[in-house]
Fold this protein.
Amino acid sequence: MTDLSTTIAGVRFPSCFMNAAGALCVTRDELVALGESGAGAIVTKSMTVEPRQGNPEPRYYGFPGGSINSMGLPNLGYQAYAELIPDLKRYGKPVIASVAGLCEDDFPTIAAIINAAQPDLIEVNLSCPNIPGKPQIGYDPDASERVIKRVRSLITVPMGLKLPPYFDPAHHEVMGKVIGRHGIDFLNMINSVGNGLVVDPEREAVVIKPKGGFGGLGGRIIKPVALANVRAFYKVFQGRIPIIGTGGVVDGVDAFEHVLCGASAVQIGTVLVEEGLGAFDRLKNELATVLARKGYRSLADCLGTVKEL
Ligand code: IRO
């Protein structure tokens, strides 16, 4: 069968498909279930200093084109994840800890303790769109650089950044400069497309409660935005920083498109929430079928090779 394994920052993943932070990965039971599933890695929910219930419900809504969420960082708190990580490493697949924070000071506090628990990689989330009154760090290059600097020296495992979608090449360039200055080991893009609004015309109402219905968009509708960001950063770094592509992967062809644009691995959020853990085996079969039909034996054979006209 086609080889769907991949390597990111020297860490081998048995398959290129994993959950996106936030999707079925908050509790111990959910993380164990990811370990026992066909996922190629276990990614934790983005964690904060204190445990959080998150925003009021309803806070997630799926629709045919994708999803909108304003979860508000529900999580067990970093100390609980630090205790869970050694157990989670038993499943023969990498564990990625997603580190967030409600203010800049939280990031180094969490990074130091989580690093000591030795996950295989750490992803620093610069792009949560759903904290009322808090703009996304990733949209402020100076704030991004401050946070990166403060955690970089504390993290000894491969360290990556979860980036928001950017919509202008000038922003890819300026963030590329920030990222290039700090020895970042991998990138993951995109987080949800922040502050969309979905309306139910029958009820004449918004569909989620927090922030007047505004929330992060995911799923099928965001794929072109995700592909554009993967491609843009792949070109900015000429393939030298490995990229995890996230956004709009619903089937194996979507994953193939991410790889063509420059993604070494792929995360799934909306489709995982909607379909459950069986999505991993379906996606692996579908991607293997596409690659075999095209005569590719591994992801490396088509990584970043999308043709320009
Ligand atoms: O609301 C959330 O918890 C959330 C987070 I931290 C994020 O990074 N992205 C998202 O869509 N939701």
In short: The longest strand covers residues 263-268.
